[in-house]
Amino acid sequence: MELNSDDSHPEDELLGTDLNTVLKASAKSLAPAVSDEALNTLNELREANLLCDAQISVGEQAFNVHRAIMCSCSSYFRAQFTGFYAASCGCRTGAAAVEENRVIYIPGISACIMNCVIQFAYLRKTNICEDNVHELLICADYVGMVGLVKQCTNYLSRTLTPENCVSIMGFARFRFLEDLYLKSRNYMLRYFTEVAARNTDIMDMNVKDFYGIISDDELNTREEDHVWKLCVKWIDRNPESRKQHVAHLMNGVRLGLMTPK
């Protein structure tokens, strides 16, 4: 039987390697399960109002929460629950300030949206749908919950259609969501023919944004006639104020690619 220089068997070395590999793989596979179980347990404690040490109040409804959980994923709640605001205002500091901040009042947010925010803080997931995604994103951004903002923007990116891409593009620009803005704009350029035929929000774009779309080199259309027809529709939407832009818009239309008539 062959032995290694250290008097060990090659089979033992191979077995040890395989065993280590199995143990590492098992640890990786168990990690998410353990984490999910812990998160679910914490959420169950919250729902049963066990070990909760703070409240978040919106409107007439209050939610019992654990401060450590909310602070772990939100810069806003971390500042609130640790007494940062009280200390910065010259009020009470230290433990006294923290004790005074056991109840946080947040105006202008519905109970349904706050419930989703708290659910995400505990479970790292929540119900995002077409009806709540915009309000949920605004709330998540307000409380500094970056992970939830990312999930909302990912949802909007996945649900882009010719009917909603213009409104999502405007929403993204207003909220300074650069990545979502670029994705929605690129979607509009790629599916321009469908957008021009089915989208109504494009008629409300200002002249600068509208010209930027029709003159973009990435605009995907086989016939420039679609571009010119959209320009006419855009002008007809408010002819008194928009007819002055006809010459400017014609500079963005590739007249040489139009069908001769």
From TrEMBL:
Keyword Repeat listed: yes
Provenance organism: Drosophila rhopaloa (Fruit fly)
The BTB domain sits at 52-130
Keyword Repeat in annotation: yes
Q: Which CDD domains match?
A: BACK_KLHL10 (cd18450)
Entry-linked SUPFAM superfamilies: POZ domain
The protein here is known as: Kelch-like protein 10
Keywords attached to this Swiss-Prot or TrEMBL record, sorted alphabetically, are: Kelch repeat, Repeat
Q: Which Pfam families match?
A: BACK, BTB
Fetch the PROSITE patterns from UniProt: BTB
Which top-level group of life is the source organism from?
Answer: Eukaryota
